[in-house]
Design a protein that fits this description.
With 140 residues, this protein is mostly helical. 77% of the residues lie in helices and 0% in strands. It has one domain. The protein is elongated, with a radius of gyration of 21 Å.
Length: 140
């Protein structure tokens, strides 16, 4: 892949994310984790080494805007809950009741996790932590 194709893929992903059509995994693993690592290892050290207030505020502002955008895109792309009728809810509860023993056994044999975590909520919390950290440079 040459650089032009890579930029096209990034641009398409960006547009799909703004429209709320991108997958959450892509937003987390391609737009989130590299940004966290870059901000922590590069920009955080750069702000601390170059102790120039205008530069610190500018970089911190740009990073905070990026993470606000990341939260916005996560909220737009998160899976929507399906509205079920009361009959469908009863059928779903009956199906879950039948599979309850199998589910407990799978958890006991470590085939299934004990706890399921909300990926969007965890990534949003990390984004808020990054925003709080970099906005602290505004007030130094």
């Amino acid at each position: 892949m040459d650089i032009k194709q890579i930029l096209t893929v990034i641009e398409d992903s960006f547009k799909k994310a703004l429209l709320g059509q991108e997958k959450v995994k892509i937003i987390v693993f391609w737009w989130g984790i590299p940004a966290y690592l870059t901000c922590y290892f590069v920009f955080n050290n750069l702000i601390r080494w170059i102790d120039f207030r205008v530069f610190d505020i500018f970089i911190s502002f740009i990073i905070s805007i990026y993470f606000v955008w990341h939260i916005y895109v996560l909220q737009r792309c998160k899976p929507k809950k399906v509205q079920l009728t009361p009959d469908e809810i009863k059928q779903l509860e009956l199906a879950q009741k039948k599979d309850r023993a199998k589910k407990i056994m799978r958890k006991f044999l470590l085939r299934e996790p004990f706890f399921k975590w909300n990926q969007v909520a965890v990534v949003t919390a990390v984004d808020l932590l990054c925003i709080a950290h970099f906005s602290s440079f505004f007030f130094r």
